[in-house]
Design brief:
Radius of gyration: 13 Å
Oligomer: single chain
Shape: globular
Helix content: under 10%
Number of helices: 0
Number of strands: 11
Strand content: over 45%
Structural class: mainly beta
Largest sheet: 7 strands, mixed
Distance between the termini: 40 Å
Length: 124
């Protein structure tokens, strides 16, 4: 079965950077569309970024220019580089996999498997 494991979260000061990693235990990782979502306390879970098997990326407006999603297929890993972090970025960040790939749907329902999440806290 496919498993996702996020890491790299932590506490950072506003303006700082963090890089999240998501390790995927799958022999067919290359074909997955991968995504990052986040959920702040008291708020709905929201889409952050996605990357297709071919490397096409898409970001929510609030993180464009600050966050970068990438993948290294040889390592079965997807990353989220977060720069210029703001307190409003504080949330639990979840890695998700669209096993079918090729989708243009950026809602939660488009992703079949989810990691447990990693906490990102940005202090001011």
């Amino acid at each position: 079965q496919v498993q996702l494991a996020e890491s790299g979260g932590g506490l950072v000061q506003a303006g700082g950077s963090l890089r999240l990693s998501c390790a995927v235990s799958s022999r067919t990782f290359d074909s997955y569309r991968m995504g990052w979502f986040r959920q702040a306390p008291g708020k709905e879970r929201e889409f952050v970024a996605t990357i297709s098997w071919i490397g096409a990326t898409y970001y929510t407006d609030s993180v464009k220019g600050r966050f970068t999603i990438s993948r290294v297929n040889a390592k079965n890993t997807v990353y989220l580089q977060m720069n210029s972090l703001k307190p409003e970025d504080t949330a639990v960040y979840y890695c998700a996999a669209d096993l079918n790939g090729g989708s243009i749907d950026y809602t939660e329902g488009a992703f079949e498997l989810w990691g447990q999440g990693t906490q990102v806290t940005v202090s001011s």
